Amino acid sequence: MIDRPGQEAIPREGLLWMYERMSLIREFEERLKWLVETGVPAGPVHYCTGQEAVAVGVCAALEAGDWIASTHRGHGHCIAKGADVRRMMAELYGKSSGTNRGKGGSMHITDASLGMLGVNPIVGMGVTHAVGAGLSSKVRQSKQVAAAFFGDGASSQGAVHEAMNLAAIWKLPVVFVCENNGYADATPVEYAVAVNNIADRAAAYNMPGLSVDGQDVLAVWSAADAAVRHARAGEGPSLVECKTYRYYGHHQGDDPHRYRTVEEENAARERDCIQRLRRWATTKKLISADELDAIETKNRALLDDAVRFAEQSPLPDPSELLTDVYVAEP
Amino acid sequence: MIDRPGQEAIPREGLLWMYERMSLIREFEERLKWLVETGVPAGPVHYCTGQEAVAVGVCAALEAGDWIASTHRGHGHCIAKGADVRRMMAELYGKSSGTNRGKGGSMHITDASLGMLGVNPIVGMGVTHAVGAGLSSKVRQSKQVAAAFFGDGASSQGAVHEAMNLAAIWKLPVVFVCENNGYADATPVEYAVAVNNIADRAAAYNMPGLSVDGQDVLAVWSAADAAVRHARAGEGPSLVECKTYRYYGHHQGDDPHRYRTVEEENAARERDCIQRLRRWATTKKLISADELDAIETKNRALLDDAVRFAEQSPLPDPSELLTDVYVAEP
Amino acid sequence: MSTGARLAIRELTFSQALNEAIRLEMRRDPAVIVMGEDIAGAAGRAHLGMVDAWGGALRATRGLITEFGPQRVLDTPISEMGFVGAAVGAAMTGLRPIVEVMFVDLVGCCYDQLMNQAAKMHYMTGGQVRMPLVVRMAYGTRGGKPQTYGGGAGAQHSQTLYSVLAHIPGLKVVVPSTAYNAKGLMISAIRDDGPVIVMEHKFLGAAAKGNVPEEPYTVPIGHSEIVRRGSDLTLCGIGRMSHVCLEAAQELEASGISAEVVDVLTLAPLDENTILESVRRTHRIVVVDEDTPTASMARDIAARVAEQAFDWLDAPVKTVNAPETPVPFAAVLEAQYVPTAERVLDAVHELIG
Amino acid sequence: MSTGARLAIRELTFSQALNEAIRLEMRRDPAVIVMGEDIAGAAGRAHLGMVDAWGGALRATRGLITEFGPQRVLDTPISEMGFVGAAVGAAMTGLRPIVEVMFVDLVGCCYDQLMNQAAKMHYMTGGQVRMPLVVRMAYGTRGGKPQTYGGGAGAQHSQTLYSVLAHIPGLKVVVPSTAYNAKGLMISAIRDDGPVIVMEHKFLGAAAKGNVPEEPYTVPIGHSEIVRRGSDLTLCGIGRMSHVCLEAAQELEASGISAEVVDVLTLAPLDENTILESVRRTHRIVVVDEDTPTASMARDIAARVAEQAFDWLDAPVKTVNAPETPVPFAAVLEAQYVPTAERVLDAVHELIG
Ligand SMILES: Cc1ncc(C[n+]2csc(CCOP(=O)(O)OP(=O)(O)O)c2C)c(N)n1
Ligand SMILES: Cc1ncc(C[n+]2csc(CCOP(=O)(O)OP(=O)(O)O)c2C)c(N)n1
Ligand SMILES: [Mg+2]
Ligand SMILES: [Mg+2]
Fold it and tell me: Which residue's CA is the closest to the ligand 1 atom numbered 20?
């Protein structure tokens, strides 16, 4: 982990928050994976294990009133923005206490009160919604910033190009965050994308672009923080590419070894974002190992509680099938 | 007009052909405009007057077996690729002798036997079809090249981004030709596009990009020729931006003075592509003024003939409404 | 709704009525914004004294930028998926965008935003997210007298297509037919907290003129209107086809047949009851729709009648649609395309000997 | 068509049958290519010994890259408008592309290419351009028994939506229901010189097994099939709903009601005659469709019956659809979503006391 300009400005609580959120995301995904593999029918799920630093580094740079748009691989974004893991887990169980009353599932987890524009599995579309939120901020002069997470695969979507051009010409307070984890399903990024660094495409929209190590939460934070400040100052959008890695398959049923090597996976795990923050913070004596262990213990307990909450919550009433189709009943 | 590398290689016949085609396009549009303004109900038409050098410079670099994809402003592209102005005019009259048997109209004029993938008024879509033609060439190893014309407005379409990325990763023999005439309807390019030179977006697809004076037919030809050679050699796509100008409104009913100045128009007319080639070729004594006058006289006669042909051709039989819905009747 | 005497009433065109509706709502609520290609025109050229060059496909947004400025009246680049998506995002975060997609023919360039995003967001989030979004689209083929030659806008600029929007649960789809209901439905659409598609017939824009009160009023979404009373059969029309039905009803009167005419006005949610009640009184129905037949709204309405009013029917349920073809260019072919009063009369005479 | 004895017959799944159809046609004609996201997978990793990691959404293209190589089996980036457009362009210039759009839920990202380009090109060009294009799309919601908790694929990955394709003149839309007709319809689609959409039900892919001859054969596009003879009423099913209809027919037999079952197989152009003739014999019909009701194919078929077989009908024309809602995630809600044999029986009992 390299020292970053401005990182001395991160207070100890900031570092603790980052560690706590990354650890909570990791715990959530590991617990969910265990549940799914032992038979909990949670629907299609896309674990973000390995990518925690991107969600957390970006959300560390945002304020509570800011927005995020997320993707099918969205659990980490939700937790980083402050979502309650109990209600998230209940959503995966299809329970009425879920974030979406059980009507959304993993690919739609949303807590709108936290500035979440929604997890959105139609690749690229969330990016356009973030641009709309940026427009709303500008028109209402509310100074809010919108961050749009999207994958390397999504970077090929036309909607993303359109969204970037719109944000650029209108100078909207948007931060485009490309989570380049190397794959779209089973398709390697070097096959699907014509450039080496997706961040280089920022030039096509006359906006700043930066490619950072997505396994280094401080590097992500530092780039995102600059982009957020730029946005909030009315200077327009930026593109931050975070090179990261997903530890597991595309979804719960995917065997990644059909398209990538174990060596590559092992090398990625060497760069694990949580371990790196731990090593850095303890070496620098900013935080003790005991403190970090305590965080992990607490997060395990939170997940125990979340699973219990999800299990014990009631199912939606059958009548819920027909409610909330129209926003205002005619 | 600046001397261009390789232009000495253009034989006199090449120059004559360019002049003849540009003049024929001009004559076609002027005649059509006169017809429409005197009451011929030709449907919506988008005159390309002023932009002749782009169509002609690009098609001069193509071989007969190559393809072009065109736009709503497509008459010039059709004529440059060799379309018969009689059948084009008949199409505008909705006659059965038209290129499309009267079923297409201005926005769909197509002579598939000349490698035309169609005039296509859904902005940006023709570009994707050219990429498909390039793919066809590559799979069938036919060495054909596809040129895709599109406007500055179209450059904001997601489909164009997707098409460029596809052509780049597959190294397809495609030449992307952006006709930047400064406007999409009544929207100035400097408002709608986040960069100054659309050609600069080529870098986002790791392909060559060049911005040329679209009022200089030899400059267009030179850039297109290099791009076509590149493509035919299997080196992949290129982007050529031609800065041009449309003399009239967006369509026959549009008054451009609501969004641009007469001064700007006059300055553009100073750079008229036909007059420039005339001046250059006569000054260099490559072609005499008499020869060029004779070409224009001949083209006027061709248009007299085309209008006569269109007027005298029969209307489609009413039964044609129902034919050719399915390619092969079930 | 209009309370009569108090209101000043003038004749406006359909487009002017839309314009007035949008203008009044923009005055009423600063959250209302307008977006779309060339909805103003000359974007960024105010310094040259140029603003408001186009006013959109139907000129329904003309003049708005002069009153509300470029912050609330946004010309967009040609990127339907992007700007409709931006409108969706804006609707989720405090604005009430009215977005123009020039022609319904371009629905294929933004369909995901309508059918997966705007339509479903409220449901998928368990009711958390509101979606006060209006999407305006011009539609329709040139009807009327065949010219001897020439042509119309062709296969990709003349479509109707509203059934592919009405098909999607969560979208409301309204099809105004007069200046009066254009204004009232537009105001209802803007005030609705969910997504509403407003289908505006190209050839009603300037042609449909009528009395319109100056003040704001609403015409409720989800209500059809009986625009002519009759007893022998029901003619059910959508958009411009309501006028065709009225024309046919007029002619039928001459031959002693009394036709009731229902103007559907809202396709989704459909006001079945008004249609079913009419059929239960008249025992016969012809549904007239400018769209192509397969999976059309005409067939939808016919099926509802065949299921829910079967016992009252004295004759087959008839539908009159455009033919199962793209829209041809040539005027002689196009003239056969759009349903006419004549074709409606043919259908009626098949029902009533 | 199968000539019986000569052919070797094995049991294949629906997905395997699709795979075999594509493979045989690729052998037969070098112009046939396959495109789509992850239709092979591991693109560009052959040097690591990795090819063919996925085989598409239904695994229907697995193994093709090994036989035909990456020139003819092309993984695409996530750019549906772009690669479907490329397929359209390729079809115009000498290839016969088979393109997979993972799920019909993504139709909104490429709809223009289907409805404006592929569907209309032949007509608009006056018959010049041929469009030998196949577009494969997985569709459908998880049916069957409710689990106590958990959920399915949710509102944006469970849709049916074929009516928005069948609505477009020029597109053929087929909906195979068995391994046998999946192979035969796919071969017909590939050999067709126009655009054909092949709708593949996600939950038939592995579940529908049946006898399939080894050799190539065609099942004609535009023909429905009577899959069970009966005399008291007609059940008309689409895709997986044909199986639901057969199930219902079985149960009706127990109560002495003889149901005929028509498997629609092609939505456009619809084989009206088979359906109408059946109704003219049975005098009653229930149309069963997994899609949402408004402007659905069920309503389309019902309307045709109500117009063209009215005089033979003894009862209202019934339709059974999914409810007018997005697809909910929770298993308990989802289980109420897809029409079941029980709901079909309810509809039948409304018709036949
Ligand atoms: C528009 C669209 N196309 C295709 C899919 C199917 N799909 C879901 S996730 C995915 C891969 C996304 O890759 P990337 O953007 O890199 O995100 P990651 O999964 O790596 O987080 C695909 C192809 C989809 N959901 N939406
Ligand atoms: C997808 C799409 N959006 C909008 C339109 C309406 N429209 C037709 S031409 C045009 C402007 C095109 O501008 P440009 O690409 O610069 O071409 P030019 O007209 O200048 O030749 C627009 C907005 C359309 N036909 N298709
Ligand atoms: Mg990825
Ligand atoms: Mg232009």
Answer: A184
